[in-house]
From TrEMBL:
Sequence similarity: Belongs to the class I-like SAM-binding methyltransferase superfamily. RsmB/NOP family.
Bias type Basic residues, positions: 1-18
Principal cellular location given in the protein's record: nucleus
One matching Pfam family: PUA_NSUN2
Protein name, per record: SAM-dependent MTase RsmB/NOP-type domain-containing protein
GO molecular function: tRNA (cytidine-5-)-methyltransferase activity; tRNA binding
Region of interest (Disordered), residue spans: 1-46, 427-453, 485-550
Listed Gene3D superfamilies: Vaccinia Virus protein VP39 (3.40.50.150)
Superkingdom as given in the UniProt entry: Eukaryota
Natural source organism: Linum trigynum
Acidic residues composition bias: residue spans: 443-453, 539-548
PROSITE patterns in the cross-refs: NOL1_NOP2_SUN, SAM_MT_RSMB_NOP
Keywords: Methyltransferase, Nucleus, RNA-binding, S-adenosyl-L-methionine, Transferase, tRNA processing, tRNA-binding
Length: 833
């Protein structure tokens, strides 16, 4: 099938995916849709009744922080209380992207305007001016309105179908911004540190695929990571629609993301020069879209109104710094990192960026990107803000009362300076000399009422809802200029953080302690924070023997290549494992040191690989051997074979050599699937090509591939199984009957008269589907929804096709399924897809 985006479908996952992105607005039955006026305030839909959009603490906090001027306050609040209009993006690497764009520009823009009239002129959908090539669209209807309003049904159906297929992605407009500032190129190695549910990962993949020719892959790759296993599943589901071989989904802690440094392993094990060439996993680009309080999403998640407190942001500040610092450590010199949050809170935004810049001491620059995306309305970052802790406003660390030093740390304030109580000058020490001030703290005894940062934080961007009727977002673009400086290890800090952790956990587990909402939120965040600090401390302890000063470059998490890890490595690198071990592995799946996670194994079974190459006539131009992996250590029971790009292959080999530091949840493009019993019993090749893998391998196969006329191609899509004698083009039926039993590929013949597989030329517009050649008929091996969508695309693209599709509706002749066995095979294949 041409184009990416025909991923496998799992109903349960789809449901989770939907639920995970669902809004929870309650609406009365009598409500009517919004008037759709594009101006921010006019678009506020008064008929929507959110259950609670009041929070005094929120008002007080943001009024004081001055993120909008007092004159704008009412407009800001009015917009942030209204539902968020829907937005979506066309997948630029889809084969049908320009068809879809034309359909939106010419068909839906006009008909939706006409339909939504109500007497008034409405701009129902429009491209987002700041997004390149009219690929991202804004709709003045919220997602709920799109679902409820009958007149919008066709548009809604279109959105649903194309989203499911992967041709479009529904995504909040402002969430599309960070990847655009990352300046991604196809050869880049990209780390998306906190990636779930994956909309930005999808965007990053689109960008690296943008100028890729059919049958080839970009040189770069994306590692998409998320700590939360369930959210990771959403991410996998989301990115499956992209059908990519250039993605690894991992499940590591971002602040401890492994550096996969080869040096230690090398000292004990000899590896080839080739293996040494990628001695460490470093990235050209890092997206650091950190966990945050999320108040920029209030318009689509109104339940947050009830929960919001300043403590949410305060509690995340440290974790955000740790994740950003890890991102910078993993970045190549010269590389760029985008730090972003969907929060408006300066403590999670400017304060984090400022602290990171201070820690990096000149090795990292905050870039001025004010000339980029000029149509995107945004506001400069703040240089002044305050911290609110337990109901008290604090202008500087000096204001923090003694026992709250843990709640409001110096890095939260604009200057980042630590306050130390004045020391009496004349106190003599035991030796008669003056006492030294405490060396571990930067001292600042000046009287500071309100602090201002001396860093160029105005280079950060804050997008606020009422500027362009959107959600809110914060973005900062950083560039690494030189290796990060070493950080002196502070043993006292270790002790403190461990004590702190114990204290917090005690408090959380003690039912007699009754927290307020604010306290509760904060405490939860503190647990996360302490846990991560403890983790880094453990790493540091392990490293202590070798390094007293721990460089911030990838060292802290590199100490995980254990003996065991390396032993596992050898088992998998060398391909086959001993059978007894394989049986054991089946019982308890192990990925190196990760228990309960399927292993990632290079698939090196020569006999199977050769039979696939022979059956499909795969040309030597296609890098095949060494690019296949499975998730089952027993080759005889491998159900699916995945294809990986060269970049992913290099990363996986490195990961194996360093003891599987990456906890891999998903990797590779599903290329082949084992035939099921009935279908596969007579076929000479045990594996069929999957829909996802077909676009990539299509230009490289020379056998089991045929051109079909438009009418026969459409009939296959419509009737699913057709007897050889029933094809309109008898010669095609004849050729099809002579194919070998099993999987084959049918290509839609173009007007330029391609006739046989010998002359078949594949380009970006080639449309092909996987089929099954049975004894008396040909059956399609594409899911019903994919067939439906492809028919839809063909009819939109071409008037001639539209006519054939319309005519074939009346034809009943072909809809004969009188051969029991063929029906069984088709049903079985469809169920497997
Ligand atoms: C703002 S969301 C990311 C949204 C995502 N970038 C997207 O565009 O779809 C933050 C994510 O961070 C994850 N997360 C929280 N703590 C983390 C940690 N310590 N390491 C990695 N991911 C973490 C959460 O599970 C959540 O999915």
């Amino acid at each position: 099938m041409g184009g990416r985006g025909r991923g496998s479908k799992s109903r349960t996952q789809r449901k989770h995916f939907r639920d995970g992105r669902e809004n929870v607005w309650k609406r009365s039955k009598s409500d009517s849709p919004a008037d759709g006026n594009s101006a921010a305030t006019a678009a506020v839909d008064r008929s929507w009744q959110p259950f609670a959009t009041q929070n005094t603490a929120f008002d007080e906090y943001y009024k004081e922080q001055g993120i909008v001027s007092p004159e704008e306050w009412d407009t800001f609040m009015e917009v942030i209380r209204s539902p968020l209009p829907a937005a979506f993006r066309i997948n630029s690497s889809s084969q049908f992207s320009s068809d879809i764009r034309k359909q939106l520009e010419n068909d839906f823009t006009k008909c939706l305007q006409a339909e939504g009239a109500d007497g008034a002129e409405i701009e129902a959908i429009r491209p987002l001016a700041w997004y390149p090539d009219n690929l991202a669209w804004h709709s003045n209807y919220s997602r709920m309105q799109l679902r409820k309003n009958q007149t919008l049904e066709r548009f809604h159906e279109f959105l649903k179908l194309e989203n499911e297929i992967g041709n479009i992605t529904r995504q909040e407009a402002v969430s599309m911004v960070p990847p655009l500032f990352l300046d991604v190129r196809p050869e880049h190695f990209i780390l998306d540190m906190c990636a779930a549910p994956g909309s930005k990962t999808f965007q990053l993949l689109e960008i690296i695929y943008q100028s890729t020719k059919p049958g080839s892959l970009p040189d770069g790759m994306v590692i998409a990571n998320d700590l939360d296993v369930q959210r990771c599943n959403l991410l996998i589901h989301q990115t499956k629609r992209m059908c990519t071989a250039n993605l690894i989904v991992t499940n590591n802690e971002a602040q401890q993301f492994p550096g996969c440094r080869l040096s230690k392993a090398l000292s004990k094990h000899s590896v080839s020069e080739h293996e040494q060439s990628m001695g460490q996993l470093l990235f050209d680009r890092v997206l650091c879209d950190v966990p945050c309080s999320g108040d920029g999403t209030l318009r689509k998640a109104p339940d947050l109104w009830r929960k919001w407190s300043p403590g949410m942001g305060n509690g995340l500040h440290n974790l955000q710094i740790q994740i950003a610092m890890r991102g910078l450590a993993l970045l190549k010199v010269g590389g760029k990192m985008v730090y972003s949050t969907c929060s408006m809170n300066p403590v999670e935004n400017e304060a984090v960026v400022a602290e990171v810049l201070r820690k990096c001491g000149g090795s990292v620059e905050l870039l001025d990107v004010s000339n980029e995306l000029p149509d995107l309305v945004r506001r400069p970052g703040l240089r002044k803000w305050k911290v609110r802790d337990r109901g008290v406003w604090l202008a500087s660390h000096k204001d923090v009362i003694k026992n709250r030093h843990f709640g409001a740390v110096p890095g939260m304030f604009p200057s980042g300076r630590t306050y130390v109580a004045p020391i009496k000058k004349d106190i003599k020490n035991e030796n008669g000399g003056n006492s030294e001030p405490n060396q571990e703290l930067e001292t600042s005894n000046e009287d500071v009422d309100e602090e201002t940062s001396d860093l160029p934080l105005e280079r950060c961007m804050r997008i606020v809802p009422h500027d362009q009727n959107s959600g809110a977002f914060f973005i900062a673009v950083l560039q690494k200029l030189s290796p990060l400086p070493a950080i002196p290890e502070n043993p006292k800090k270790q002790k403190n953080s461990i004590a702190k952790k114990d204290e917090t956990q005690e408090k959380i587990s003690d039912p007699s302690v009754e927290d307020t909402d604010e306290q509760e939120q904060e405490s939860k965040s503190i647990v996360m924070e302490s846990a991560s600090e403890a983790a880094s401390d453990i790493d540091l302890v392990d490293n202590e023997e070798e390094e007293k000063d721990v460089p911030m470059e990838v060292a802290p998490c590199d100490n995980v290549s254990t003996e065991n890890g390396l032993e596992d490595t050898q088992v998998t690198v060398n391909g086959k494992s001993d059978p007894e071990k394989a049986v054991g592995n089946r019982k308890l799946q192990m990925q190196g040191r990760w228990k309960g996670v399927d292993p990632v194994l290079f698939f090196n079974d020569e006999a199977t690989i050769n039979s696939i190459i022979e059956f499909y006539g795969i040309g030597e131009s296609f890098p095949f051997k060494g690019h296949l992996i499975s998730r089952n250590s027993d080759d005889n029971h491998v159900k699916r074979i995945y294809y990986i790009s060269k970049s992913v292959k290099d990363a996986l080999e490195l990961n194996i050599l360093v003891g599987q530091q990456l906890k891999i949840a998903s990797v590779g493009l599903k290329m082949f699937e084992r035939q099921t019993a009935i279908a596969g019993s007579d076929a000479p090749c045990a594996f069929r090509i999957s829909s996802e893998g077909l676009p990539l391998i299509l230009p490289h196969i020379t056998k089991q591939i045929l051109n079909a006329s438009p009418v026969d191609f459409i009939h296959i899509l419509k009737y699913k199984t057709i007897k050889f004698r029933d094809f309109v083009d008898a010669a095609f039926g004849e050729k099809a009957s002579k194919l070998m039993m099993g999987c084959c590929v049918i290509v839609l013949k173009k007007d330029d008269g391609q006739v046989s597989s010998d002359t078949l030329k594949v380009d970006a517009s080639t449309i092909a589907i996987g089929c099954w050649k049975g004894r008396g008929s040909l059956s399609v091996m594409v899911t019903a929804i994919d067939c439906q969508e492809l028919l839809e695309r063909l009819s939109v693209r071409d008037e001639g096709m539209k006519e054939i599709i319309a005519r074939s509706k009346e034809s009943k002749v072909l809809n004969r399924k009188d051969e029991k066995e063929e029906v069984e095979v088709t049903e079985e294949l469809a169920a497997d897809q």
